[in-house]
Amino acid sequence: MLHFLFSFKGRVTRTKFWIFYLVGCLFAGTVAGGIMTAVQFLEKGPGTTPPLPWPFGWSWSPWDILMAAFVGLFFYAVVAVVVKRLHDRGKSAWWLLLFYGLPLASFAALRLTEFLPQTTLQPHWIQTALFVVNSVIIWWYLLEILFLPGNKGDNRFGPDPRDNRKPI
Predict the structure, then answer these.
(1) What is the pLDDT of residues 43-101, one digit of tens each?
(2) Which domain holds residue 70?
(3) Closest residue by Cα to residue 78 from 11, 21, 141, 153
(4) DSSP for residue 60
(5) For the chain, how many structural domains are there in total?
(6) Which residue, 50, 70, 88, 144, is most buried by CB atoms nearer than 10 A?
(7) Could you say which DSSP state residue 116 is in?
(8) Exposed e or buried b for every residue in 36-48, given b needs 16+ CB within 10 A?
(9) Whole-prediction pTM value?
(10) Quick one: pLDDT band at residue 127, thresholds 50, 70, 90?
(11) Is residue 100 part of a domain?
């Protein structure tokens, strides 16, 4: 299980990825988030307004540090499993620069367009173009990771995970 969650080597099928994704979202969003919010609320005492969820209510309490560690660990596991899913498709981890890096850079560029002076090329045209580029990349990412089957047989990243033959 640790290899599945924290190793960047090997391949993962769509089925295992979907299970990881659904269970991970359920656990991270519901169980861990609910527990951390309840603990923060109990720290403040009954009758007070609920605290803002992390990271907005950041106070450097032990619970906030625990939540940051949990988020970091969960993000690492997501990236590791996505890399293995890319390996199953025959792609290297460098594709993460396209799938994660470009939308992040595009988001930063969108924020910067707010400070552009009004010219003949209005910022909303830039924003629209960046939105379209981000949309195409996100849909491509979802198609690659969630829906397209992996390569049949062995590839440069390892044996086919759908092959049930045991080595002798």
Answers:
(1) 666 555 555 555 555 566 676 777 778 888 888 999 999 999 999 999 999 999 999 99
(2) 7-147
(3) 21
(4) -
(5) 1
(6) 88
(7) S
(8) bbeebeeeeeeee
(9) 0.76
(10) confident
(11) yes
**Residue found by looking up tokens 């969630």 in the block:** 146
Residue corresponding to tokens 């988020």: 71
C-alpha span between 90 and 156 (Å, rounded):
7
In the numeric block, the tokens 């899913």 are attached to 85
Q: Percent of the chain at pLDDT above 90? A: 39
pLDDT above 90 (res 12): yes
Q: Is residue 1 part of a domain?
A: no
Phi, psi values for residue 116, rounded to 5°: -70, 145
Residue 77 lies in a domain: yes
Residue with tokens 């609910």: 34
Please report whether residue 168 resides in a domain.
Answer: no
Both ends of the chain: CA-CA distance in Å? 23
Q: Torsion angle, CA of 128/131/95/11, rounded to 10 degrees?
A: -150
How far is 70 from 81, CA to CA, in rounded Å?
17
The secondary structure element, H or E, covering residue 107 is helix 102-113
- Cα of 21 vs its chain's centroid, Å: 10
The two tokens of residue 149 are 């089957």
